[in-house]
Design a protein that fits this description.
The complex is a heterodimer. Chain A is an alpha+beta fold. Chain A has helices spanning 12-21, 34-39, 75-80, 82-87, 89-96, 101-106, 109-115, 122-128, 142-145, 212-220, 224-228, 245-264, and strands at 5-8, 25-28, 47-50, 60-63, 66-70, 132-135, 139-141, 146-148, 151-152, 160-166, 170-177, 184-193, 196-202, 209-210. The chains are: A alpha+beta, B alpha+beta. The interface between A and B is medium-sized, with 20 and 25 residues.
Chain lengths: 265, 777
């Protein structure tokens, strides 16, 4: 780890001010990605601005048709929330299967979403559940938020304050874990909002993406068979020494179908 | 047999201390005024070093010294040891490069140490290490075992004109090939035994201090016993008298074979402590452990077996390629040969055998001993051949084994490579495993899985080991005034539970309370002169027999003292349960021990004290063996595999503590599961390690651990009085072939004829895909 200046932000405005006032700052949320990166000396920010003390960045509420999760809420809190379990069980279930217990108690939704790790789970929830990412400056639709590999629509001075998930009629998330890292190789969120269906895939591509062909097929007929033969091209997908792009493409079809199977029971 | 005697499932003495943070690992050692080492490691797999500029690093805050390979040469440091000596059949000696502690003009693998920085803090040392500038002339590299001997492969050592270390052979090739050709049925398997990262929980570390006044050096490091490290470090590397070098390992977080070796970093930390006359400490991080700890396995085997119409195998041919890495490590090159490969053809009586081994250099970290050290590889070859033979002849997998086992009537059985198996009930052991696993009713379970769309398979392996190599070991027993007994062992417990088992033995032989026996090991200042350490499942025999021999000598001495106290003849004194008796009178061992300190209370001419120091020496190893059955289910859509049932039956002779042996079985099986399912070292074509962290290297997790039913078929060894056979490596031998046998069973109906480890989901899925394409066509 290289040296850096540590700041504990008092509130969001203070954090935003420090973000612009320092040379090469990084926001510290749960630190589940940032701290290992620093320890391995793969990043050397001049300043770390810790958001942990900002109490209004924590908490969950269910409002008219939305589950609102404040940015610094740990995954374990989302998973254990009776409100979330009741209003949007797929979100609680997704949060409860992120990483391991240590990660779920330290890692936060804001940190995960801001990082846009291609293998993270929350991006599939954001896009699949038509979420809005609320920042210190504006509201961004999840569809516009995730731009690429570790890349989002966030401006350098912008801080995520909450994520607002639309409550669907029903939704289901399934993932295939990486044999080494345990991250999602393919994670599929299927959500039905009246006549509309969203299918969001994380893990397989450089960032989360929707599968329009599956959505259209499910909107026509919400049944496992509708997606069983829809194949995503492997060309835009990623591969590594364990799971090739072709295998990931295959798993998207299998997991989308299984998610629908689980939903129609 | 008391509550704490031989065979009792006594809970480990060590665990409360270790589980409550009481362990003392090398990083827990902090020496007064210590400074810190950091290493500059090669980013290239093969490159000429054209310049090393340490000026910037030397001028940084807190930096005390920077050393390069040339500095070590100039200081008169020696070279790494390797005592392998093989000759090609042509008479040409093996290619044997010398390995400097750090190279001077060429680097040969990614992660090789090229410079060492010493600074006041670990962070300063790391910062300065990053500032050392090295100019490289990057050369083409070779990492692949399959292509290491290709004509156009770059040569790791151009002076040899080849990457081949030696072509080692056993048997008559022409004769074996003729017999294979004449066989009724001939089967062949081509196997990859995947390279593994050993991953002890404790990273490699060292802390050293030098006392200039006495010229003595103390080195703290994880190990598997310090005596051999002491000899190597003193004699070969530092050129010091061994008695001036002390190696201390308090606790060691996992050995698995690779912690028994002397590594360059340890030697350099010791060197720096001496050169600077200041304590120096280094704790490797996990990334360094990946790139610089020796790796395990990495063989390619092509094996053929000839059988008659009845399924009797009479001829065997095995050709092995071994990737030894860039240099010769201490033991790596021996493993497929007489080191571990010697047990082929394993538990089977196969009269004709040709065996060829070609170790090769590549631009990778060296391979060396890893749990089983050549025996898991040997058993894997043989078991895959047996399954192939069963399939070719339409025999069941258990029946072909039964027809080829070495029988108890054939024992002692002299093997091809010249050792003698004294005991073992291979058929009975296999039958126990089959019965426990409900082998005969498997088809119903297969049908039940099929109804759920799953492919279920059951697999079988049998195996044998050679345990207790170098069977010479010292043991010292001391009686303390407070009634405690202290053992000083040459073995070194780095997880095995020796403090528990040796105390059971002292309790058994001398009747001393289990809680009053203390073990001291891991320190060359106090361990017996004859001390080889702990490796190769040897300590139950060599350490256990040491306790027995010492106890016998103590009883003999004690009888004389007791006779003197009881005013009778020693011949009339019997010793039982800690008490010496002569007719109605008696005296306890504790009383005898107390008396032994008083010249007035012992027979005239007898030396004071009951303490004993013995060296146990055996001329043979022992041969643990066993049978495993694995039942699993595969999701054909994803290739995901789940182990549903696992039975391990071990013949490790007399079981000293079943609780501890079960632990060994569970750990060994899980490491075998890792090799079979998840673990694989991958280098790219340039020799960069792609599986360089747990993000990419698949360590097995708790979820991979099956419920294991561990059973014993006790056949006492005839070659040591305790009747023990080693137990540490059996699990890692039995698991890979049992799992592969089960997967073969699950997939064979689809027409899948071959699959290699590790059985990652994609690999299994692809095998299914390819088979169905072939079927459809």
């Amino acid at each position: 780890m290289h040296n850096f200046n540590y700041h504990r932000a008092a509130d969001v405005a203070d954090a935003a001010a420090k973000l612009t006032a320092t040379e090469d700052p990084k926001l510290l949320a749960g630190g589940m990605t940032l701290l290992p990166t620093l320890k391995n000396r793969l990043a050397a920010p001049s300043d770390l601005i810790d958001l942990a003390a900002i109490s209004d960045l924590k908490g969950i509420s269910v409002e008219s048709g939305e589950v609102v999760v404040r940015a610094m809420t740990p995954h374990a809190v989302v998973a254990a929330s009776a409100e979330v379990q009741k209003a949007l069980p797929a979100l609680a279930q997704l949060a409860g299967n992120i990483g391991d217990p240590a990660v779920r108690h330290r890692g936060t939704i804001g940190g995960s979403v801001a990082n846009s790790d291609p293998a993270a789970d929350y991006p599939a929830a954001c896009v699949g559940l038509d979420a809005t990412i609320v920042t210190s400056q504006r509201k961004i639709a999840a569809d516009d938020f995730f731009v690429g590999l570790f890349e989002t629509a966030l401006e350098p001075s912008e801080i995520i304050t909450e994520v607002r998930f639309q409550i669907p009629d029903r939704a289901y998330y399934m993932k295939f874990r990486h044999p080494a890292s345990g991250y999602a190789v393919v994670g599929v969120m299927v959500a039905q909002f009246g006549a509309k269906v969203r299918v969001a895939v994380t893990g397989a591509g450089p960032c989360v993406f929707r599968v329009a062909e599956m959505e259209a097929a499910l909107e026509k007929s919400f049944a496992p068979a509708s997606v069983a033969n829809i194949h995503v091209s492997a060309e835009q997908l990623m591969g590594d020494i364990h799971c090739s792009a072709a295998y990931r493409a295959h798993l998207i079809t299998v997991y989308a179908r299984r998610a629908v199977e689980a939903m129609v029971g | 047999m008391g509550e704490f005697g031989i065979g009792q499932p006594v809970r480990r003495k060590e665990d409360v201390r270790l589980l409550t943070g009481g362990g003392e690992f090398t990083d827990d050692i902090n020496l007064e005024a210590q400074v810190y080492a950091a290493f500059v490691r090669s980013p290239h797999a093969n490159a000429k070093i054209t310049a090393i500029d340490t000026l910037a690093a030397r001028s940084m805050d807190g930096v005390i010294a920077v050393y390069t390979g040339q500095d070590l040469v100039d200081a008169g440091m020696g070279v790494m040891i390797n005592d392998a000596s093989y000759t090609n059949r042509s008479g040409k000696p093996m290619n044997k490069p010398s390995r400097r502690i750090m190279p001077v003009d060429q680097t040969r693998f990614v992660g090789e140490c090229l410079a060492m920085v010493i600074a006041d803090t670990p962070a300063q040392a790391r910062d300065a290490a990053e500032a050392v500038e090295i100019d490289y002339d990057v050369l083409p590299a070779i990492a692949s075992t399959a292509h290491g001997l290709d004509k156009d492969a770059p040569h790791v050592w151009p002076e040899f004109g080849e990457n081949l270390v030696v072509h080692w052979e056993y048997g008559d090739q022409a004769d074996v090939e003729a017999k294979l050709a004449a066989s009724h049925t001939r089967v062949r398997v081509d196997l990859v035994n995947n390279r593994l990262i050993v991953s002890p929980m404790e990273p490699r570390s060292a802390a050293a201090e030098y006392d200039a006044a006495t010229g003595s050096l103390t080195v703290y490091t994880p190990s598997q016993g310090g005596r051999r490290l002491q000899m190597t470090l003193a004699r070969a590397l530092l050129k010091m008298a061994p008695e001036k070098v002390r190696i201390i390992s308090r606790d060691t977080g996992g050995g698995f074979g690779i912690r028994s070796k002397m590594y360059p970093e340890t030697a350099m930390v010791a060197f720096a402590a001496r050169a600077l006359a200041r304590p120096v400490k280094w704790r490797g991080d996990r990334s360094e452990t990946f790139v610089s700890d020796y790796h395990g396995r990495d063989q390619i085997n092509i094996a053929e077996m000839g059988l008659d119409a009845n399924g009797r195998a009479s001829v065997l041919k095995v050709e092995t390629l071994l990737n030894v890495g860039a240099y010769l490590s201490e033991n790596g090159v021996r493993l497929p040969m007489e080191g571990g490969g010697r047990i082929i053809p394993c538990v089977y009586d196969i009269p004709n055998f040709y065996f060829s081994v070609k170790p090769m250099f590549t631009n990778t970290i060296c391979t060396d001993t890893y749990r089983g050290a050549g025996r898991p590889e040997a058993n894997y070859i043989m078991e895959r051949l047996m399954d192939a033979g069963a399939k070719a002849l339409g025999l069941s997998r258990e029946e072909i084994r039964r027809r080829n086992f070495i029988t108890q009537e054939q024992m002692p059985y002299k093997t091809h490579l010249g050792f003698t198996i004294d005991s073992g009930d291979f058929d009975g052991t296999m039958q126990m495993a089959l019965d426990a696993a409900k082998w005969d009713s498997f088809e119903a379970r297969r049908a039940e899985s099929a109804a759920r769309g799953k492919l279920r398979g059951i697999g079988l392996s049998t195996f044998i080991e050679g345990a207790g190599s170098r069977p010479v070991e010292g043991m010292r027993m001391r009686f303390e005034e407070d009634g405690h007994v202290t053992l000083f062992a040459g073995t070194y417990s780095h997880g095995q539970g020796h403090a528990t088992v040796y105390a059971q033995l002292v309790n058994e032989f001398l009747g001393v309370d289990f809680d009053k026996v203390k073990l001291i090991d891991g320190d060359t200042a106090t361990s017996p002169e004859t001390s080889n350490g702990t490796f190769g499942s040897r300590s139950s025999m060599v350490g256990g027999m040491g306790v027995k021999r010492a106890s016998e000598a103590i009883i003999a001495k004690g009888r004389k003292i007791a006779a003197h106290l009881l005013q009778t003849d020693a011949e009339r004194v019997v010793f039982e349960g800690g008490v010496f008796r002569a007719q109605s009178s008696s005296v306890t061992l504790a009383e005898v021990a107390a008396a032994s300190r008083d010249a007035k209370k012992i027979p005239e001419g007898m030396a004071l004290g009951l303490d004993e120091s013995v060296v146990f020496e055996n001329d043979v190893e022992n041969f643990p063996n066993g049978a495993h059955v694995c039942e699993l289910e595969i999701d054909p859509e994803t290739g995901m595999l789940e182990i549903l049932n696992y039975v391990a039956v071990d013949d490790c002779g007399v079981v000293l503590n079943p609780f501890i042996v079960h632990g060994q079985v569970y750990g060994g099986v899980l490491q075998g599961v890792g090799q079979a399912l998840t673990e694989n070292v991958v280098y790219d074509a340039d020799g960069q390690l792609l599986s360089a962290s747990y993000m990419d290297y698949g360590m097995p997790r708790a979820a991979h651990m099956p419920m294991i039913e561990a059973l014993f078929n006790v056949v006492p060894a005839k070659t040591n009085e305790l009747g023990v056979k080693g137990a540490g490596e059996a699990g890692a031998c039995g698991a890979p072939p049992a799992i592969l046998s089960a997967v073969g069973d699950a997939l064979s109906r689809l027409g899948v004829s071959h699959i290699d480890m590790p059985l990652t989901p994609e690999r299994v899925w692809r095998a299914i895909q390819e088979a169905s394409i072939v079927k459809a066509a």
